[in-house]
Amino acid sequence: MRSVFVNSCAMWTETLLALITFAFVTSITPGPNNLMLMASGANFGFQRTIPHMLGVALGFVFMAFLMGLGLAQAFERWPWLRDVLTVVSVVYMLWLAWKIANAAAPKAGVEAGTPITFLQAAGFQWVNPKAWSMALTSVTLYAPNDSALAMLFVAGVFGAVNLPSVSVWCLLGREMRRILTNPLRLRLFNWAMAGVLVASLYPAVM
Predict the structure, then answer these.
(1) What is the pLDDT of residues 67-86, one digit of tens each?
(2) Which pLDDT score, from 0 to 100, does residue 201 have?
(3) How far apart are CA 82 and CA 66, in angstroms?
(4) pTM of the entire structure?
(5) What does the angle CA 33 – CA 36 – CA 40 come to, to the nearest 5 degrees?
C-alpha cells in the first residue's frame, strides 16, 4: 500500500514539474502577448501595463479551463468554427498592430494613447493562436483526469507560471524607454513591433 502511494506521489510530482517546465518555456518565448507587453512597457511603463499582464494571465487560465471542459470537442464537431476564429484573430491582431504602431510617446497625454486594458488582454487570448495551442496541449498532456478540478489545477499552475514570465517582457520594454525618448526611435520601435506581430500571424493563416 505504501509503495502504491509513493509511486502515485512520484508520478504526480513528475507531471507537475513537466507542466511547470512546459508553462515556463511557452510563456517566456516570443509570441503575440509578449511582443505587445514589451511594446506597452516601452510606451507606458510597468505600472500602467499591470492590467494588461493580469489580463493575459487570468484570461489564459479561464480559456484553458473551458478548453479542458470540452470546448476543444466543439471544434471537432463543427470545423467551421476554427475558420471563424482564424478570421476574427487576424482582424483583431491587425487592429492591435495598428494600435502599437500608433502608440503614444512615453509621458504623453492620455489623449495620445492608452495601454491595453484588462478585459482587452483577457479577450485577446481567445483570438491568439499561440494561446490556443498552449491551452490545448497543457490540458491534454498534463491533466491527471477529465474532472473540472483537474482542469482548474492545470490552468491555475499555468497561470501562476505565466504571470511572472510575461512580466519579464514588460520590464524589458520599460528598460528600453531609456533609448526610446527620441520620437523617431520610438516610432521606429513601435512600427517594428507591429510588423513582428503581423508576421506572427503567418503560422495561423497558412
Answers:
(1) 878 765 666 777 777 677 66
(2) 59
(3) 16
(4) 0.71
(5) 135
Residues 6 or more apart whose CB falls under 8 angstroms from that of 128 comprise: 31, 32, 33, 89, 93
DSSP string, the chain: -HHHHHHHHHHHHHHHHHHHHHHHHHHHS--HHHHHHHHHHHHHHHHHHHHHHHHHHHHHHHHHHHIIIIIHHHHHH-THHHHHHHHHHHHHHHHHHHHHHTPPPTT--GGG--PPPHHHHHHHGGG-HHHHHHHHHHHHHS-SSSSHHHHHHHHHHHHHHHHHHHHHHHHHHHHHGGG--SHHHHHHHHHHHHHHHHHTTHHHH-
91-103 burial by CB neighbour count: b if 16+ within 10 A, else e? Answer: ebbeebbebbbeb
Asked if residue 109 has pLDDT above 50, the reply is no
Q: Which residue type sits at 128?
A: N
CA distances from 28 to 5, 105, 131, 146, 162 (A): 34, 26, 13, 27, 8
Q: Using CA atoms in the order 5, 11, 17, 22, what is the torsion angle rounded to 10 degrees?
A: -150
What's CA 3's distance to the chain center, in Å?
Answer: 40
Residue 32 scores a pLDDT above 90: no
